[in-house]
Specification:
The chain is α/β, with parallel strands linked by helices. It is 39% helix and 23% strand. Helix 3 links the parallel strand 3 and strand 4. Helix 1 packs across helix 3, helix 4 runs parallel beside helix 5 and helix 5 packs across helix 6. It is globular and about 50 Å long.
Amino acid sequence: MNKKLLFRRIGAVVLPPLGYMLMRFYWYTSKKHFHIEGTVTQKQHIVVCWHGELLCSPQAYRHLHRTQAASGIISRHFDGEIIARILGFFHIVPLRGSSSKGAKQVLLEAFRALKKGDDLLVTPDGPRGPRHEISQGALALAMKANAPIMAVNYIPSSYWKLGSWDAFVIPKPFATLDFYIKIVSVEGMEIDEARAYLREKMLEHTLM
């Protein structure tokens, strides 16, 4: 076994619980303000957040939908494996695939999850970008499900931003987190119009 594979296997075991504990640390030690546009019901939603905001956005979703069955589309890359295992702590079932790997299979699994009533979590600019661009697959799922879209953004009062492609945001300890939740409908729109509209709504409150 080469070193890279060994480190990845160890990382897949060690990193998810550490990542989960880090997420919970930020959640419990921060002040949180929720700014909600539209009405959040307990019915099925398609939940979208930017890839760079994954540290806190899933927790905001679970704060609003505490008990709903949920699935999330996660890439087959190694970082996707870590994210999938972390989301498991929040009772979000991973569907593994992306536009570049396993796209057909993951779309079928996503449609099955929607049919049985799961919420579906998607990072529309994941897994490799371009940053803050909406993939067609994410919108197709939302339009097929005919379910409202819950767009989740957050802005910390103080933070670090990594040099990764998604400019991953890490709040500083004890920061104030302002969550912006928008219930968005793309009903009756053509897909290009819906993509532009959803992107505009998601960029209203995000760090550039």
